[in-house]
Amino acid sequence: MNPVLQVLDIKKHFPVKGGLFGTTVGQVYAVDGVSFHIDRGETLSLVGESGCGKSTVGKAVLRLFPLTAGQVVLDGTRIDDMSAGALRPLRRKIQVVFQDPFSSLNPRMKVRDILAEPITNFGLARDAADVDRRVAELMDKVRLPRDAVNRWPHEFSGGQRQRICIARALAAEPDLIVCDEAVSALDVSVKAQIVNLLQDLQSELGLAMLFISHDLAIVEHMTHRVAVMYLGRIVEVAKKRDLFATPRHPYTEALLSAVPVMEPGAARDRMILKGDVPSPIRPPPGCHFHTRCPYAFDRCRKEEPKLVATGDGHLAACHLHDLPEAENPLLNKAAPMASRAA
Questions:
Q1: Could you tell me the maximum CA-CA distance found in the chain, to the nearest angstrom?
Q2: Which of 125, 143, 282, 306 has the most neighbouring CB atoms within 10 Å?
Q3: Whole-prediction pTM value?
Q4: β-strand 23-38 against 5-18: which pairing, if any?
């Protein structure tokens, strides 16, 4: 079975302008060779610190700007090099839910018109009565009262507005939904409700999702696989259970150590990274993470690690996995780690 989405070695470099005449003086390497796939009915979560490039990947998949290099394949069709006219019929297959539901909704349109717009744009309804029926069904799907279609976006709470954004995404009957920090702006209780709603909709409709987030607690609850990004590159990809139980990259280990422990009396061995994230204008040579990695050795400073299999479906980009297992500190937790603190 072909995956819904294939991302093949995509790169997005933004020019840096400077000088009196605005000449290009450098590049921001926002995304620097990212590959992954998403199967039907699957959620792939893209995680990492702010500025790592994960939202840029989402926008690249949505064709909101041209790529510097690489390919995006949707349902077996390459879309990154399509003209706007040729791409338009395929846009209904991939929809998006953004972080801020208020700015995502037109304040001058009632909910009925917001939900009807993609239905009419893509020719999914036979007549006005069919549009109204579909709008009512969408309100049922996101668990909002049908009579709320006659209200304005400002009359809803943040969680309700995000439900409207989800309904609008569903209106086009997509195969894939990109959720770009879709729950990060919501209260904790509302966040859980939206995550549960997304899971129920995925199960009911067979949707694929690219879930972009920095909240690993939410990711652990709702995803199937996780891809970890650092400074424009994917450093680890694995099934959720494998990644949270046995991370195979030092950066992933550091991210997981920062997740709060909810059980009373429980503690976590915290990994404190040294230094700051390097500039994406001048990323370090070799492994981008070597300037902060407690395990780095000479090879890490010179040679870029490839994303290779380290287990059943578990990929990691780390030179440590070329060492004998007994010498690999990621697999041998008895090895000392100078940067660890309780």
A1: 69
A2: 125
A3: 0.90
A4: antiparallel
